[in-house]
Design goal:
Rossmann fold; alpha/beta; single chain; globular; 13 strands; two-stranded parallel ribbon
Length: about 325
Amino acid sequence: MQMLTGKRIVLTGGTGFVGGHLLPKLVQAEADVHCIVRSSSDTSRLPPEVKTHVCDLASGAGLKEALDHCDVFIHMAALLFGSGFQAYLENNGTSAQRLCQALAEIAHPPKRVILLSSMAASGPDASEQGASDGCLPRPVSAYGWSKLFVERTFQAHFQGELIILRPGIIYGSGDRGLLPVFQGAKHGFAVSPGFGRSFPVSCIHAQDMAEALICALHAQAHGIYHVSDGQRYSMDSFCQAICQALGRKAHIFHIPLPIMAVTAACATFWARLRACLSRDKSAKAPNWNLDKYREAREAGWVCDSSRLSRDTDFRARLSLAQGMQESVEGYRKRGWL
Protein backbone atom coordinates (compact mmCIF):
# COMPACT_ATOMS: atom_id res chain seq x y z
CA MET A 1 0.00 0.00 0.00
CA GLN A 2 3.02 2.32 0.27
CA MET A 3 2.83 2.82 -3.48
CA LEU A 4 -0.39 4.82 -2.93
CA THR A 5 0.95 7.26 -0.33
CA GLY A 6 0.51 10.80 -1.61
CA LYS A 7 -0.79 9.66 -4.99
CA ARG A 8 -3.59 11.82 -6.39
CA ILE A 9 -6.33 9.36 -7.36
CA VAL A 10 -9.47 10.62 -9.09
CA LEU A 11 -12.45 8.31 -9.53
CA THR A 12 -16.03 8.17 -10.67
CA GLY A 13 -18.56 5.96 -8.90
CA GLY A 14 -17.17 6.76 -5.46
CA THR A 15 -20.64 7.20 -3.99
CA GLY A 16 -21.75 3.85 -5.42
CA PHE A 17 -21.66 0.28 -4.21
CA VAL A 18 -18.06 -0.70 -4.97
CA GLY A 19 -16.86 2.81 -4.19
CA GLY A 20 -18.11 2.40 -0.64
CA HIS A 21 -15.67 -0.49 -0.18
CA LEU A 22 -12.77 1.03 -2.16
CA LEU A 23 -12.56 4.54 -0.71
CA PRO A 24 -11.74 3.53 2.90
CA LYS A 25 -8.86 1.39 1.59
CA LEU A 26 -7.47 4.28 -0.46
CA VAL A 27 -7.76 6.67 2.46
CA GLN A 28 -6.11 4.17 4.79
CA ALA A 29 -3.23 3.93 2.30
CA GLU A 30 -2.85 7.74 2.61
CA ALA A 31 -3.69 8.42 -1.02
CA ASP A 32 -4.98 11.86 -2.03
CA VAL A 33 -8.49 10.78 -3.07
CA HIS A 34 -10.81 12.88 -5.25
CA CYS A 35 -14.34 11.85 -6.29
CA ILE A 36 -16.16 13.11 -9.37
CA VAL A 37 -19.82 13.41 -8.31
CA ARG A 38 -23.08 14.68 -9.74
CA SER A 39 -24.88 17.64 -8.20
CA SER A 40 -27.56 15.18 -7.05
CA SER A 41 -25.12 12.64 -5.54
CA ASP A 42 -25.45 11.66 -1.89
CA THR A 43 -21.96 12.27 -0.50
CA SER A 44 -22.90 11.76 3.16
CA ARG A 45 -21.19 8.35 3.35
CA LEU A 46 -17.89 9.46 1.84
CA PRO A 47 -14.90 9.46 4.21
CA PRO A 48 -14.15 13.02 5.39
CA GLU A 49 -10.69 12.88 3.82
CA VAL A 50 -12.15 12.50 0.32
CA LYS A 51 -12.42 15.64 -1.80
CA THR A 52 -15.32 16.00 -4.24
CA HIS A 53 -15.66 17.66 -7.64
CA VAL A 54 -19.16 18.30 -8.98
CA CYS A 55 -19.08 17.48 -12.70
CA ASP A 56 -21.50 16.58 -15.48
CA LEU A 57 -20.56 13.36 -17.27
CA ALA A 58 -23.18 14.04 -19.94
CA SER A 59 -21.80 17.43 -21.01
CA GLY A 60 -18.25 17.12 -19.70
CA ALA A 61 -18.53 20.24 -17.56
CA GLY A 62 -15.88 20.34 -14.83
CA LEU A 63 -14.04 17.20 -15.91
CA LYS A 64 -10.81 18.83 -17.08
CA GLU A 65 -10.36 20.66 -13.80
CA ALA A 66 -11.01 17.47 -11.79
CA LEU A 67 -8.72 15.24 -13.85
CA ASP A 68 -5.72 17.52 -14.36
CA HIS A 69 -2.55 16.56 -12.46
CA CYS A 70 -3.96 13.25 -11.17
CA ASP A 71 -1.67 10.22 -11.03
CA VAL A 72 -4.39 7.60 -11.48
CA PHE A 73 -7.96 7.77 -12.77
CA ILE A 74 -10.44 5.01 -11.88
CA HIS A 75 -13.73 4.93 -13.83
CA MET A 76 -16.46 2.94 -12.07
CA ALA A 77 -19.66 4.94 -12.68
CA ALA A 78 -22.16 3.14 -14.92
CA LEU A 79 -25.85 2.63 -15.57
CA LEU A 80 -26.63 -0.91 -14.37
CA PHE A 81 -30.36 -1.11 -15.11
CA GLY A 82 -31.55 0.61 -18.26
CA SER A 83 -34.72 0.58 -20.30
CA GLY A 84 -32.95 -0.52 -23.48
CA PHE A 85 -29.93 -0.22 -25.77
CA GLN A 86 -30.31 3.53 -26.20
CA ALA A 87 -30.42 4.22 -22.47
CA TYR A 88 -27.27 2.19 -21.80
CA LEU A 89 -25.30 3.66 -24.69
CA GLU A 90 -26.43 7.22 -24.00
CA ASN A 91 -25.40 6.97 -20.35
CA ASN A 92 -22.32 4.73 -20.32
CA GLY A 93 -21.12 5.59 -23.81
CA THR A 94 -21.50 9.35 -23.49
CA SER A 95 -19.70 9.38 -20.15
CA ALA A 96 -16.75 7.51 -21.68
CA GLN A 97 -16.55 9.91 -24.61
CA ARG A 98 -16.64 12.99 -22.37
CA LEU A 99 -13.98 11.55 -20.05
CA CYS A 100 -11.66 10.65 -22.93
CA GLN A 101 -12.12 14.11 -24.42
CA ALA A 102 -11.18 15.69 -21.09
CA LEU A 103 -8.15 13.39 -20.69
CA ALA A 104 -6.95 14.39 -24.17
CA GLU A 105 -7.25 18.12 -23.45
CA ILE A 106 -5.64 18.44 -20.01
CA ALA A 107 -1.99 19.41 -19.68
CA HIS A 108 -1.05 16.68 -17.20
CA PRO A 109 -3.09 13.49 -17.85
CA PRO A 110 -2.79 10.45 -15.55
CA LYS A 111 -0.22 7.82 -16.38
CA ARG A 112 -2.69 5.02 -15.66
CA VAL A 113 -6.45 4.60 -16.07
CA ILE A 114 -8.38 1.71 -14.57
CA LEU A 115 -11.80 0.77 -15.92
CA LEU A 116 -14.22 -1.27 -13.86
CA SER A 117 -15.99 -3.06 -16.69
CA SER A 118 -17.96 -6.32 -16.50
CA MET A 119 -17.90 -9.90 -17.67
CA ALA A 120 -21.01 -8.86 -19.59
CA ALA A 121 -18.56 -7.27 -22.06
CA SER A 122 -16.91 -10.67 -22.63
CA GLY A 123 -20.13 -12.57 -22.98
CA PRO A 124 -21.37 -15.83 -21.41
CA ASP A 125 -19.17 -18.85 -20.77
CA ALA A 126 -20.23 -22.04 -18.98
CA SER A 127 -17.02 -24.00 -19.64
CA GLU A 128 -15.00 -25.52 -16.82
CA GLN A 129 -12.20 -22.97 -17.18
CA GLY A 130 -14.40 -19.99 -17.99
CA ALA A 131 -13.79 -16.92 -20.11
CA SER A 132 -10.10 -16.04 -20.47
CA ASP A 133 -8.61 -12.55 -20.59
CA GLY A 134 -7.89 -12.92 -24.29
CA CYS A 135 -11.33 -14.20 -25.31
CA LEU A 136 -13.19 -12.71 -28.26
CA PRO A 137 -15.96 -10.48 -26.79
CA ARG A 138 -19.52 -11.49 -27.63
CA PRO A 139 -21.94 -9.53 -25.43
CA VAL A 140 -25.54 -10.70 -25.39
CA SER A 141 -27.13 -7.74 -23.57
CA ALA A 142 -27.38 -4.01 -24.10
CA TYR A 143 -25.52 -3.53 -20.84
CA GLY A 144 -22.70 -5.76 -22.08
CA TRP A 145 -22.46 -3.94 -25.40
CA SER A 146 -22.32 -0.58 -23.60
CA LYS A 147 -19.48 -1.77 -21.36
CA LEU A 148 -17.56 -3.04 -24.39
CA PHE A 149 -18.17 0.32 -26.09
CA VAL A 150 -16.67 2.07 -23.05
CA GLU A 151 -13.61 -0.20 -23.20
CA ARG A 152 -13.11 0.41 -26.91
CA THR A 153 -13.53 4.18 -26.45
CA PHE A 154 -10.75 4.35 -23.85
CA GLN A 155 -8.53 2.00 -25.85
CA ALA A 156 -8.87 4.27 -28.89
CA HIS A 157 -8.34 7.61 -27.16
CA PHE A 158 -6.25 7.19 -24.00
CA GLN A 159 -2.51 7.14 -24.68
CA GLY A 160 -1.28 6.00 -21.26
CA GLU A 161 -1.50 2.66 -19.45
CA LEU A 162 -5.04 1.27 -19.46
CA ILE A 163 -6.13 -1.58 -17.20
CA ILE A 164 -9.58 -3.13 -17.70
CA LEU A 165 -11.20 -5.32 -15.04
CA ARG A 166 -14.10 -7.59 -16.00
CA PRO A 167 -15.60 -9.08 -12.81
CA GLY A 168 -18.31 -11.69 -12.55
CA ILE A 169 -21.17 -11.06 -10.11
CA ILE A 170 -20.15 -8.47 -7.51
CA TYR A 171 -22.04 -8.75 -4.24
CA GLY A 172 -21.78 -7.25 -0.77
CA SER A 173 -23.26 -4.66 1.58
CA GLY A 174 -24.55 -1.55 -0.16
CA ASP A 175 -25.55 -3.36 -3.37
CA ARG A 176 -29.08 -2.59 -4.51
CA GLY A 177 -28.80 -4.76 -7.62
CA LEU A 178 -29.04 -8.06 -5.72
CA LEU A 179 -31.19 -6.65 -2.92
CA PRO A 180 -34.43 -8.20 -4.33
CA VAL A 181 -32.71 -11.62 -4.25
CA PHE A 182 -31.81 -11.15 -0.58
CA GLN A 183 -35.33 -9.91 0.18
CA GLY A 184 -36.79 -13.03 -1.40
CA ALA A 185 -34.31 -15.24 0.46
CA LYS A 186 -35.40 -13.58 3.70
CA HIS A 187 -38.72 -15.34 3.16
CA GLY A 188 -36.97 -18.59 2.27
CA PHE A 189 -37.26 -18.66 -1.51
CA ALA A 190 -34.97 -17.91 -4.46
CA VAL A 191 -35.09 -18.31 -8.23
CA SER A 192 -32.66 -20.02 -10.60
CA PRO A 193 -33.07 -19.34 -14.34
CA GLY A 194 -34.07 -22.32 -16.45
CA PHE A 195 -35.31 -25.80 -15.64
CA GLY A 196 -32.94 -28.76 -15.32
CA ARG A 197 -29.64 -26.88 -15.44
CA SER A 198 -27.08 -25.58 -12.92
CA PHE A 199 -26.37 -22.11 -14.40
CA PRO A 200 -22.73 -21.80 -13.19
CA VAL A 201 -21.43 -18.34 -12.25
CA SER A 202 -18.30 -16.59 -11.02
CA CYS A 203 -18.59 -13.98 -8.31
CA ILE A 204 -16.56 -11.77 -6.00
CA HIS A 205 -17.30 -9.82 -2.84
CA ALA A 206 -17.04 -6.03 -3.08
CA GLN A 207 -14.19 -5.91 -0.54
CA ASP A 208 -12.15 -8.27 -2.70
CA MET A 209 -13.18 -6.29 -5.79
CA ALA A 210 -11.73 -3.21 -4.13
CA GLU A 211 -8.49 -5.13 -3.52
CA ALA A 212 -8.41 -6.10 -7.20
CA LEU A 213 -8.73 -2.45 -8.20
CA ILE A 214 -5.78 -1.60 -5.97
CA CYS A 215 -3.79 -4.52 -7.40
CA ALA A 216 -4.39 -3.04 -10.85
CA LEU A 217 -2.14 -0.17 -9.75
CA HIS A 218 0.86 -2.51 -9.53
CA ALA A 219 3.54 -1.91 -12.14
CA GLN A 220 3.21 -5.48 -13.46
CA ALA A 221 -0.51 -5.11 -14.25
CA HIS A 222 -1.42 -4.72 -17.91
CA GLY A 223 -4.29 -5.31 -20.31
CA ILE A 224 -7.64 -6.93 -19.53
CA TYR A 225 -8.30 -9.05 -16.44
CA HIS A 226 -11.31 -11.10 -15.44
CA VAL A 227 -11.95 -10.98 -11.71
CA SER A 228 -13.56 -13.54 -9.38
CA ASP A 229 -12.86 -15.33 -6.12
CA GLY A 230 -11.47 -18.23 -8.14
CA GLN A 231 -14.42 -20.55 -7.49
CA ARG A 232 -17.24 -21.82 -9.68
CA TYR A 233 -20.76 -21.80 -8.21
CA SER A 234 -24.09 -23.09 -9.40
CA MET A 235 -26.91 -20.60 -8.98
CA ASP A 236 -28.40 -23.04 -6.45
CA SER A 237 -25.29 -22.87 -4.24
CA PHE A 238 -25.13 -19.08 -4.61
CA CYS A 239 -28.74 -18.72 -3.43
CA GLN A 240 -28.28 -21.30 -0.68
CA ALA A 241 -25.39 -19.23 0.70
CA ILE A 242 -27.70 -16.20 0.87
CA CYS A 243 -30.39 -18.16 2.71
CA GLN A 244 -27.86 -19.62 5.14
CA ALA A 245 -26.53 -16.15 5.97
CA LEU A 246 -30.12 -15.11 6.68
CA GLY A 247 -30.76 -18.20 8.79
CA ARG A 248 -33.44 -19.47 6.42
CA LYS A 249 -34.04 -22.81 4.78
CA ALA A 250 -33.58 -22.42 1.05
CA HIS A 251 -36.44 -23.18 -1.33
CA ILE A 252 -35.05 -22.65 -4.83
CA PHE A 253 -37.45 -22.54 -7.76
CA HIS A 254 -36.15 -23.35 -11.24
CA ILE A 255 -38.30 -21.19 -13.49
CA PRO A 256 -38.57 -22.24 -17.17
CA LEU A 257 -37.04 -19.66 -19.48
CA PRO A 258 -40.27 -18.93 -21.43
CA ILE A 259 -41.98 -17.94 -18.17
CA MET A 260 -39.00 -15.76 -17.22
CA ALA A 261 -39.17 -14.09 -20.64
CA VAL A 262 -42.82 -13.21 -20.08
CA THR A 263 -42.18 -11.78 -16.61
CA ALA A 264 -39.24 -9.74 -17.90
CA ALA A 265 -41.31 -8.39 -20.79
CA CYS A 266 -44.16 -7.44 -18.45
CA ALA A 267 -41.82 -5.72 -16.00
CA THR A 268 -40.14 -3.79 -18.82
CA PHE A 269 -43.45 -2.79 -20.43
CA TRP A 270 -44.95 -1.68 -17.12
CA ALA A 271 -41.88 0.43 -16.27
CA ARG A 272 -41.93 2.11 -19.68
CA LEU A 273 -45.66 2.76 -19.45
CA ARG A 274 -45.31 4.40 -16.04
CA ALA A 275 -42.42 6.54 -17.32
CA CYS A 276 -44.50 7.57 -20.34
CA LEU A 277 -47.57 8.44 -18.29
CA SER A 278 -45.53 10.40 -15.76
CA ARG A 279 -43.37 11.93 -18.50
CA ASP A 280 -40.36 11.21 -16.35
CA LYS A 281 -37.45 10.45 -18.68
CA SER A 282 -35.16 9.78 -15.72
CA ALA A 283 -37.33 6.96 -14.34
CA LYS A 284 -35.22 3.90 -13.48
CA ALA A 285 -35.73 0.54 -15.13
CA PRO A 286 -36.64 -2.41 -12.87
CA ASN A 287 -33.87 -4.75 -11.73
CA TRP A 288 -35.55 -7.57 -13.64
CA ASN A 289 -36.09 -6.60 -17.27
CA LEU A 290 -35.64 -7.90 -20.80
CA ASP A 291 -31.95 -7.02 -20.87
CA LYS A 292 -31.25 -9.03 -17.72
CA TYR A 293 -33.28 -11.88 -19.20
CA ARG A 294 -30.92 -11.92 -22.19
CA GLU A 295 -28.12 -12.68 -19.73
CA ALA A 296 -30.15 -15.15 -17.64
CA ARG A 297 -31.11 -17.32 -20.63
CA GLU A 298 -27.45 -18.17 -21.36
CA ALA A 299 -25.84 -21.38 -20.09
CA GLY A 300 -23.64 -19.65 -17.49
CA TRP A 301 -21.19 -16.88 -16.62
CA VAL A 302 -17.83 -18.26 -15.52
CA CYS A 303 -14.49 -16.49 -15.89
CA ASP A 304 -10.82 -17.34 -15.34
CA SER A 305 -9.10 -14.83 -13.02
CA SER A 306 -5.78 -16.69 -12.72
CA ARG A 307 -3.72 -14.16 -14.74
CA LEU A 308 -4.59 -11.36 -12.32
CA SER A 309 -3.31 -13.54 -9.48
CA ARG A 310 -0.11 -14.35 -11.37
CA ASP A 311 0.64 -10.76 -12.33
CA THR A 312 -0.27 -8.99 -9.09
CA ASP A 313 -0.53 -11.67 -6.36
CA PHE A 314 -4.22 -10.84 -5.98
CA ARG A 315 -6.07 -13.27 -3.72
CA ALA A 316 -9.72 -13.17 -2.73
CA ARG A 317 -9.93 -13.16 1.07
CA LEU A 318 -13.62 -13.77 1.67
CA SER A 319 -15.30 -17.11 1.08
CA LEU A 320 -18.83 -17.12 -0.29
CA ALA A 321 -20.23 -17.81 3.19
CA GLN A 322 -18.22 -14.97 4.75
CA GLY A 323 -19.16 -12.60 1.97
CA MET A 324 -22.86 -13.36 2.29
CA GLN A 325 -22.68 -12.83 6.04
CA GLU A 326 -21.11 -9.39 5.51
CA SER A 327 -23.79 -8.58 2.93
CA VAL A 328 -26.65 -9.49 5.26
CA GLU A 329 -25.16 -7.55 8.17
CA GLY A 330 -24.66 -4.52 5.95
CA TYR A 331 -28.20 -4.67 4.55
CA ARG A 332 -29.65 -4.94 8.04
CA LYS A 333 -27.54 -2.07 9.33
CA ARG A 334 -29.03 0.16 6.62
CA GLY A 335 -32.54 -1.11 7.27
CA TRP A 336 -32.87 -2.69 3.85
CA LEU A 337 -33.79 -6.16 5.18
